[in-house]
Amino acid sequence: MSQAAEATAYAVRMEEVTRSYGSVTALRGVSRAFPRGGFTAVMGPSGSGKSTFLHCASGLDRPTSGSVLIGGTDIGRLSEAKRTRLRRERIGFVFQSFNLIPSMDVEQNITLPLHLSGARADPRWLAEVVGRVGLTDRLRHRPSELSGGQQQRAAVARALITRPEVVFADEPTGALDPRSARDVLGLLREAADQTGQTVVLVTHDPMAAAWADSVLFLRDGEIVAELADPTPTTVMAHWEIL
Ligand SMILES: Nc1ncnc2c1ncn2[C@@H]1O[C@H](COP(=O)(O)OP(=O)(O)OP(=O)(O)O)[C@@H](O)[C@H]1O
Ligand SMILES: [Mg+2]
Question: Which domain holds residue 85?
């Protein structure tokens, strides 16, 4: 495929990505392309490499070997500064540990990615995103004044505020009640369906995984199974045989 066609078809492509931490190999030669506008869930036992997978696919971390292309650009060939800029402009990330800035209030945290790239918040989009994550009456609160679920929702709003081409979310519903979880998953689904954004979601929850178009199962740093058009029941059944 030409570089231009590649950039159009796939938002992200990983080729033979291996990531080792000293003697621990967290990812072993993973190859996978994420089509634009697709919603993929990633599941696997604790320690199977899911967070490492997301960190490498999003350019937060560099593979020990192999390559990652974001919109056709091989990020391994970019300088640290260019990689950071590409990530800021094109990627949204929800961290497993939220990573909110303690000294900033909710609104400042959510709009931080915009400020970092010198953009201003579109007030209507800000109100929309904040409303969807249910934090309209918490904008002046600091993260320490929020519940775990509220912090998680602020992290999701921060990832969506720049309308990134790709949203990576590491367990964004782990601390949420079922209704808030549905709202957050609905936001991600809408990002894929209505704006053609690409979503990659790590989750332990079969109900959450069922919102995706396909589910990848990781074990010991490798993709060992894949399931298309998942339902909670088929996800559970796959999980059982892993
Ligand atoms: N910075 C690091 N230094 C050393 N080892 C690491 C580091 N990050 C991850 N690992 C190891 O790599 C493996 C995969 O970790 P990873 O965080 O990707 O797992 P995970 O599937 O996200 O697990 P969980 O479901 O518990 O979040 C684990 O064995 C972990 O101990
Ligand atoms: Mg993890």
Answer: 3-240
